[in-house]
Design brief:
Two copies of one chain form a homodimer. Chain A folds into two domains: 248 residues, Crotonobetainyl-coa:carnitine coa-transferase, domain 1 (Rossmann fold); 83 residues, formyl-coa transferase, domain 3. Helix content of chain A is 41%, strand content 16%. Chain A is elongated. By secondary structure, chain A is an alpha/beta fold. Chain A is built from 18 helices and 14 strands. In chain A, the strands form four sheets. Chain A has a six-stranded parallel β-sheet with strand order 5-2-1-6-7-8, sandwiched between helices. The first copy, chain A, has a three-stranded antiparallel β-sheet with strand order 9-10-11, covered by helices on one side. Chain A has a two-stranded antiparallel ribbon with strand order 3-4. The interface between A and B is large, with 138 and 138 residues.
Chain lengths: 381, 381
């Protein structure tokens, strides 16, 4: 059986954070019914599009069933409520308060205490900023993440992916699974409240150590290491390589490799502190060597010398590597319009298998008739 | 009861990825026994230090018990194995193969099929790159994350936090909890394999959409939005604010707010595409207005006008905000040496509570005697 076989989830979410949470659970075999308004999830209308299908919607909604209901209609709200009460888990990422006004709020648990009800939002269901909109940019800015990211001496930089959404989604799935553990022991469900802001703040331990223990504000360091030098990204003839020299022994190995005994003999560069102070000089010397060599040759020579190094890969290079193929990072899944849809499933291997949903995202309302018939049949019995 | 009450975890992990996974589970009430070598987890020896205690170790090991065993001693290995077989979950983040050589590998499940055995590594337990070291820098470089992060036109940039470690840890906890769901239904445990590389690759959906659907390599955009302008970080009199103008209606509101009817009337700036093309001119106009105002005034005026905006907060500002206080982002926990240790627990609220471990990290071997006595007593019975 799949890991989450028999687990029924009503998915009221849209755009990214909530859909990501439930897609990961669908990969493990949960039955996810995605309730959409007649116009569909907003993400169906966001590009890039292929044959009219939104790539992001397709990626984020693999393995789900689509049920279209117009929740402005009271009869549809009654149907949705009945469906919610027949599930193990309800997930929503409306603005705080909206789900309740639709009759689909956490008070569903008054009727079914075993229900696990999870809300995902920008800033949580409580607190003075709970009303702020769930924009990833805003969550990154306010959480401290942007302040930690960027070049040394540069401006705060948004991370190049919507990490606020993704982290809230991943934590939501984690929390739902933890609540299922307790439900198994006690029969009791849970009301779960996950915020993008809280999630991002919790993921900055390097900054926490400096700020809350050493009493120093963390500084942006770009590709540098706060303590070790040389460390970071170096230009090679055909691309970039990262090199991490951690400690004096690796420094010796590096100087030997690049045939610079003069650097090794220089007392100013004998310690990490000294090398950090003279970073530009160290970098110039290394790039004089890397700049005339291919990335592959640089990485191989450094590995031979016992120094951590790697190619900075584009997404296409990462996906095409023999390792990525062996780890099945990209899975083609059947899709009604696209035929096959490349899918990046959950990344964990269980018992030598990598579980991914059996099919890609559904067409809008593709399962409405079947699901309504099922709900009706349940009602008639 | 706590969410994970009664769940017993043997934690063989060190440094960051594994300890982060188990700390999150300790927050939810799992009993985590951390097995350390006589010299302790390497992280005990990494600064910054306060009163001789490592801040990062303290943050990453809240709520755990410390058991010191020297696994070079065959008798200690027998003890560790007995302990592992008495637990629900074993977590390790050695290099692939090391745990097995210590008699603590996934073949523990031959003896106890219900055991959940989780391995965390840089590149997984299988595949041609499985031997590569689990450096965060290497995982970020090879996964495509670095290539997605950085200024437009700049170099690939490591994200300013060890996201490879943290994501592998968070996914590991998620996978363990999913395996517990199946164990409840079937009695069957699981062998789990989480890689930093796979985890980071799975967290780049914006790039996946471009690369695998639109066939375009994703480009670094810094603080810019790929489609909307103005969007990003703007200099105010006393700091930085992010501003997100999404669509023409918000552009009109912005031009009205900053009293620039000329921009609004300019046909070159009438569309997102036009504004994106003329971004420097748009930025200059906005910063002429923001640059003479305090961040708080800028954010308030934009909110009033219906335009998403926020202060770029340092970690200290984020933690001190009334909202962060209401959401209890930082929890002081009792610590044997430090008295109180500021702790950033798991970020999710359950049933109106925020569960965090009851105490901070243990002293090295603080629980050795008690745990050995318990193992001995179990053996005697």
């Amino acid at each position: 059986m799949t890991l989450l076989q028999g687990l029924k989830i009503l998915d009221l979410t849209r755009v990214m954070a909530g859909p990501f949470a439930t897609a990961l659970l669908a990969d493990l075999g949960a039955e996810v019914v995605k309730l959409e308004p007649p116009q569909g999830d907003d993400y169906r209308h966001i590009g890039p599009f292929v044959q009219g299908e939104s790539a992001l919607f397709t990626l984020m909604n693999r393995g789900k069933q689509s049920l279209v209901l117009d929740l402005k209609d009271p009869a549809a709200r009654t149907t949705a409520r009945a469906l919610a009460l027949s599930c193990d888990v309800v997930v929503e990422n409306f603005r705080p308060g909206v789900a309740g006004r639709l009759g689909l709020g956490p008070d569903l648990r008054d009727e079914k205490p075993a229900l696990i009800y999870a809300s995902i939002s920008g800033f949580g269901q409580t607190g003075p900023d709970a009303h702020l909109p769930a924009y990833d940019l805003v969550a990154q800015a306010m959480s401290g993440l942007m302040d930690a990211n960027g070049e040394a001496g540069g401006k705060p930089l948004k991370v190049g992916e919507a990490l606020g959404d993704l982290m809230a989604g991943l934590y939501a799935g984690w929390a739902i699974l933890a609540a299922l553990y307790r439900r198994n022991a006690t029969g009791q469900g849970a009301t779960i409240d996950v915020a993008m802001f809280d999630a991002l703040f919790s993921l900055l331990p390097t900054g926490h150590a400096l700020q809350f223990y050493a009493g120093r504000a963390p500084q942006r360091v770009g590709n540098r290491h706060p303590l070790s030098t040389p460390f970071g990204c170096f230009t090679c003839a055909d691309g970039q390589a990262v090199i991490a020299v951690l400690g004096d022994r690796q420094w010796q190995a590096l100087c030997t490799l690049i045939a610079r005994p003069d650097l090794l003999a220089d007392p100013d560069l004998a310690s990490d502190a000294g090398r950090t102070e003279q970073e530009p000089r160290v970098r110039t010397a290394i790039e004089a060597w890397t700049g005339t060599r291919q990335v592959a040759a640089v990485v191989a020579a450094l590995a031979e010398a016992g120094i951590p190094a790697a190619r900075v890969q584009t997404l296409a290079e990462a996906a095409a590597s023999p390792h990525a193929q062996a780890r099945r990072l990209v899975t083609p899944l059947p899709h009604a319009v696209l035929g096959q849809a490349p899918t990046i499933g959950q990344p964990v291997w269980f018992d030598g298998q990598k579980p991914v949903a059996p099919c890609s995202a559904p067409g809008l309302g593709a399962h409405t008739a079947a699901l309504l018939a099922r709900i009706q049949a349940r009602h008639d019995h």
